[in-house]
Amino acid sequence: MDQAMRTKRISPGRLRPWADLGSSRDEEEQNWLITLSDLMSLLLVFFIIFVALSRVPFSEKGKGSIPVQGGSATQAEGESEPQALGREMRAVVASLGLGDQVSIRADVREVVITLKEAVTFPSGEDRILPPSLPILDALAGMIKRYPSYEVEIAGHTDDRPIHNGRFHSNGELSVARAASVLRYLMDGHALDPGRFTIKGHGEQRPLAPNLTEEQRAQNRRVEIRLKEGSREGFQESRISRTF
Length: 243
Description:
alpha/beta, single chain
């Protein structure tokens, strides 16, 4: 009798409901883990795609394209706004392959874009050459986005006397070149003329001693200076010539 009772207590029929319950719980946990794993995989895929798209190099967007941005340039830590603008312009210059003809200098107060004669004007003339137009277009967009910045355009020449029917001195040529740049910016981009000053320094502010052809080429240039500040200094004289 005792043996029969023991057999009855451990009969499979009485243990089966507990075994089925444990199996059901295991299956539910496995299904939950599978669902969570699928969700995490999808999130990982979306994150990888987002990072990949945000890091596409500028050069892959097409050589000669101009970056179009709205609002302020993104400033790195410890970087002033003019320095951020200078970095933006360097990217434009690099994309156009004009790094040897256009230089950018930026500090905490201003940005200076220097265009050599080879990319801006024919020798002895004030007619703008086509290679400089994309740079001027990008610059115009930057000027429009930052209305608090004043713009100074200055023409420079070497020390060789000019001999043609239009210009009687290097001072006149340098003013005419600065005016041509201003005219291009005004005609095509609807900028406020009150923000601009043009200057012609002729041969009076050389970068190099004018002893070799390479040095003279450095001195023949147009400098475009962007700086934020009061308009008082700009209201005194809109055209300044140095002969």
